[in-house]
Amino acid sequence: MANKSEAEERHVLAVLVDNEPGVLARVVGLFSGRGYNIETLTVAAVSEDESSSRINLVTTGTPMIIEQIKAQLERLVPVREVHDLTEDGPHVAHEVALVKIENDGPERREALRIADIFRARVVDTGVDSFVFSLTGASDKVDSFLQLMRNLGRTEISRSGVVALSRSGKDGTPNFGLDAHDD
């Protein structure tokens, strides 16, 4: 059992897997079977021949729990590599959000003003609604959503975090996924 004095940390994990039926179910089953939570999850084929997929997931736990998660993921048969981007060094983590807001009058103008500040794009408009597209770090998306919720009825769709490590000092990636796999 985890030490109660250890603080929980948020970690971004990149998992390279064989692209075959049932792999995502096995990864998710590992988390649910042990009572771990997945905050966000994205999956897509990343190799030219689509033989590999990359799973980006965000989870929270004590350092001991995070190490257990990584070790258990590495033991799954379809898993090729597991990288903790949070521990591996600098990384870029973004998500996409589509936000529909229904309002009128001054709130409508305010929604456009806030969208401009956050660099959100209007991707659809109606007589009483806008749909904005916003890309950025989760904190940025959270802040935008909080402001929009105060201006009218909102409907939200978020992609979940996608992440890559930044280049090292010599210009090479910080972890071992081949360039053509990302």
Provide mean pLDDT, rounded. 90
CATH classification class of the largest domain:
Alpha Beta
Sheet-strand content, in percent, reads 35-45%
Helix content: 25-40%
What is the tally of helical segments? 5
| Dominant shape | elongated
CATH architecture of the largest domain: 2-Layer Sandwich
Uncertain residue ranges = 171-177
CATH topology of the largest domain, which one?
Alpha-Beta Plaits
Please state the structural category: alpha+beta
Q: How do the helices and strands follow one another from N- to C-terminus?
A: EHEEHEHEHEEHEE
Query: Mind telling me the CATH superfamily name of the largest domain?
Result: ACT domain
Largest sheet: 5 strands, antiparallel
Radius of gyration: 19 Å
Question: Which tags fit this structure?
Answer:
single chain; 182 residues; alpha+beta; Alpha-Beta Plaits; 2 domains; four-stranded antiparallel sheet; 5 helices; elongated
Structure description:
The protein is an alpha+beta fold. The protein folds into two domains: 9-88, Alpha-Beta Plaits, CATH 3.30.70.260; 92-162, Alpha-Beta Plaits (2-Layer Sandwich), CATH 3.30.70.1150. The protein has five helices and nine strands; from the N terminus they run βαββαβαβαββαββ. The strands form two sheets. Strands 5, 6, 7, 8 and 9 form a five-stranded antiparallel beta sheet that branches. It has a four-stranded antiparallel beta sheet with strand order 2-3-1-4. Helix 4 runs antiparallel to helix 5. It is elongated, with a radius of gyration of 19 Å. It starts with 8 loop residues before the first strand and ends in a 17-residue tail after the last strand. The model is unreliable at 171-177 (pLDDT under 50).
